[in-house]
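Possible regression after last week's pipeline update?

I re-ran a chain I had predicted before the update to compare outputs. Posting the input and the new output here so someone can diff against the archived version. Not blocking, just want to make sure nothing changed silently.
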Amino acid sequence: MTAKIDLFAAAPSLMKNWQRSSIELSAAASLEHANCINLHATEARENGETEQRIYLLPAWREAPCYSDRERAALGWTEALTRLSEGTSHASAFDELKVHFTEEEQIKLTLTINIINAWNRIAVGFGLYADPAAVKAARVAAA
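New output (post-update):
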């Protein structure tokens, strides 16, 4: 994929703040490392995630390797990510409340929003997030 624009050159202050917020939320979220799968499988592996769980993620409902808490997070992620499909998120929220405190619900929801936003930025501008480049950018932004 060829980038259509250099985001950090075109809007350096905005993009640095956006990236800093993303990193801060990721560090403060204190949620399981499996949430990193949503951003980069490479990071998930570095955080000890197994190949089996990475490969079975598309079948998270049927795969026995995810906990009820993880299923609640995945269900909530899917419900929020697919809002435009008109799917009700009420049952996903009910399940979320069983496994996550209110603070964790907010942290997870913010994480979902940031990841979805990054996906839309990447698709919109034709960006590819190379794991090594992302790691270097995080170090530079910190």
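Follow-up from reviewer: compared with the archived run. The CA atoms of residues 55 and 120 lie 23 Å apart. Marking as no regression found.
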